[in-house]
Amino acid sequence: MTNLVKSVFLLSLVVATTAMAQETRTEARDLRSTEQPWSGSIAVGPAFAAGLKSKNALYDVAGAVNYNFNQEVSGKVFADMAFAEQSKDEYFYNFGAGANYAPMAWSMRKASPYVSADAGYGSTRNAGESKKDALAVGAAGGMRFLTQALNWDLQVHYAVLTAQNEGTTPSVVAVRGGVNF
Question: Among 28, 31, 80, 176, which one has the highest count of C-beta atoms within 10 angstroms of its own C-beta?
Answer without folding.
Answer: 80
